[in-house]
Specification:
periplasm, DiS-bond_isomerase_DsbC/G_N_sf, globular, 4-stranded antiparallel sheet, 5-stranded mixed sheet, alpha+beta, Thiol:disulfide interchange protein, disulfide bond
Length: 249
Amino acid sequence: MIDRMMKTALAALFLATASLVSAGEPLSEAQVDTLRKALEKPNMGLKVISAQTTGVPNLVEVQLSEGPMIYSTLEGDYFIVGDLYEVGPESYVNLAEQRRDALRMETLAELNRDDMIIFAPEKETRSYITVFFDDTCYYCQKLHGEVAELNANGVEVRYLAYPRAGLSSDAYKNLASAWCADDPNETLVKLINKESVPVNVCEGNPVAAQFQLGQELGVRGTPAIVTESGKMIPGYQSASELMATLGLD
């Protein structure tokens, strides 16, 4: 009963206040400095990178350098860790996830295609997905079985390495060997098919950086599929499900 009353009160609060402040406007340098002075405690290791309005009075979105996005009062005397929802006419909108979508889209757009293993359509590319991938993962293998159908429907599949067991694991060596190979696509397919591949961990390979990037973007398992718009799908989807997700069905 109490939980229901609290949810009702929160919904009324957001409906009453969401229109009073424009969302997504960067704070001034003076306001960000105020947040830094309040939040950056020497023994806590927090560092404020940026801050912007949320649409709720006196509640701002703060991005930390190494940590989650938080919501803070303008003065920085209180903050919340968690997602902020906007109450719409028929549903709730996860504003925090929308921001993460935008961040993922911007971050992945800056990557060098040469550092990915890409399976591209022979004809027109209508859309693409970026997949954090581990060849030892059953559902990654299952997803790769859908790549031919995705390609046939104009979807490009871009693989980034994500060795779930960490950078000292055999999975790391396998993935690095694929990325370092003369023919990365063929080598990765061999690994997926459990064929023998010579270990070839070349200097400067991108696997460690891609693993770290995945962690920063919220990857917690594989496959982790990111759409062209930055939406993350945590787990396997069939080709037909992905086509629907991408709006191409």
